[in-house]
Amino acid sequence: MSSLKGSRRLLILGISGFIGSHLLDRLVADGRTEIVGWDLNRDKIASHVDQGKLVFRQHSVADPAFRNQLQEDVAWADWIINLSAVCNPSQYNTEPLLTIYTNFIDGYHIVEMAADAGKPLVHFSTSEVYGRTIASYLPGNQYDVPALYELDAERTPLLMGPTQNQRWSYATAKQLMERLIYAYHKERNLPFVIIRPFNFFGPRMDYIRGLEGEGKPRVLACFLGALLLGEPLEIVDGGHARRTITSIHDAIDATLAVLDRPEHALNTILNIGNPANELSMIELAHMMRDIMAEVSGDAGYRHHPLLQVTSAQFYGPGYEDCDRRMLDISREQALLDWTPKIPVREVLRETIAYYYGLYGKTAHRTAAAGAAE
Ligand code: UGA
């Protein structure tokens, strides 16, 4: 392995997603990393392709026709970073096979290859492996005892609902992948880091429906799309679910700290998130309306319509929600010498300003139409 604090070679799988594209921006700016990236599309990294800093392979990591190439890239790399995943809840119960294949079956050979080559694997898992909190199963939802809701990577049990609730197809596939990595570590000395992201938010997350793609993205892109297109923000099951919102920039700082501090980070499972940024989804909707009003200068956004929907209406049958994702990061802060810094208002302001800059004209026209309904 070359000196990880000097130059280094990274193989990044799923490089054109939200996290991969931000990681790439930072690595290119830093200038001391050689990068090979794989993805099925190049949309979010187009400005870096063919610029000499990145060798880009537009293939699926699951395609057996490119298995030898993948093996060569693993042999070349100092680190393998696996970001390839389907991570959109609207697909977990409508496309459970795709969800399970992408998040486990298509990826297990990456773990085998890393283990065979003895190369450290940074695998992006999910905060969703925790499932629901213990508190949510107790009468009266007992959130007054931190041990019943606070999520700690070393002690918290992983609680999923019944098999028929296919929402958990994703979390269980991700959990089995974590267990496979851990087994390879124990039996075959695979060096690894498992990162559990807690709702990373920022520009380029998912896609804006109707403007950049079709279907149902995650909540940030759903609310943004609704604001930009003059449609009501759909609030699922009263908007009581709570999430801790993490700036993508704080998340990338943590990822780079993993690479810079292998002596502390290797062979650990890390919660990466910002416990200071907890919101319910109804609070998120109100905050996004207010910030859209500030960014656009159009006070009408403060009263942008909300529409209450049930999860069965929004996601179809088989959806079950994670009630709360409050995390403990004390171990992660010490290991990585890292602390998330960006408050949720600032995260939302940056993201809303980015999309308003891209689609503002459309937004003005359609918001007026929406307000008139
Ligand atoms: C998703 C993934 O499943 C996780 O693996 C991932 O870690 C996480 O995103 C993430 O971004 O880090 P989740 O937070 O449940 O998990 O996904 P969202 O679609 O962003 O939903 C968050 C909450 O907003 C849920 O309660 C959902 O019902 C609600 N929601 C979503 C709405 O109220 N309205 C919408 O238009 C969309």
Characteristic key phrases:
13 strands, two-stranded parallel ribbon, globular, 373 residues, 14 helices, 7-stranded parallel β-sheet, binds uridine-5'-diphosphate-glucuronic acid, alpha/beta
Explain what this protein looks like in three dimensions.
The protein has 373 residues and is α/β, with parallel strands linked by helices. It is built from 14 helices and 13 strands. The longest helix has 29 residues, at 344-372. The chain starts with 7 loop residues before the first strand and ends with a helix. 45% of the residues are buried. The model is unreliable at 368-373 (pLDDT under 50). Uridine-5'-diphosphate-glucuronic acid binds next to helix 8 and strand 8. Uridine-5'-diphosphate-glucuronic acid binds at residues 87, 89, 126-128, 170, 197-200, 218-219, 222, 234-236, 239, 241, 243, 281, 321-322.
Topology:
Elements: E1 8-13, H1 18-30, E2 33-38, E3 54-57, H2 67-76, E4 79-82, H3 89-92, H4 96-103, H5 108-117, E5 121-124, H6 134-137, H7 168-188, E6 192-197, E7 200-201, H8 219-229, E8 233-236, E9 242-244, E10 246-247, H9 248-260, H10 262-265, E11 268-272, E12 278-280, H11 281-296, E13 306-309, H12 311-315, H13 330-336, H14 344-372
Parallel strand pairs: 1-2, 1-4, 2-3, 4-5, 5-6, 6-11, 7-10, 8-13
Antiparallel strand pairs: 9-12
Helix pairs in contact: 1-9, 4-7, 5-7, 8-11, 8-14, 11-14
Bound molecules: uridine-5'-diphosphate-glucuronic acid.
Summarize the structure.
The protein has helices spanning 18-30, 67-76, 89-92, 96-103, 108-117, 134-137, 168-188, 219-229, 248-260, 262-265, 281-296, 311-315, 330-336, 344-372, and strands spanning 8-13, 33-38, 54-57, 79-82, 121-124, 192-197, 200-201, 233-236, 242-244, 246-247, 268-272, 278-280, 306-309.
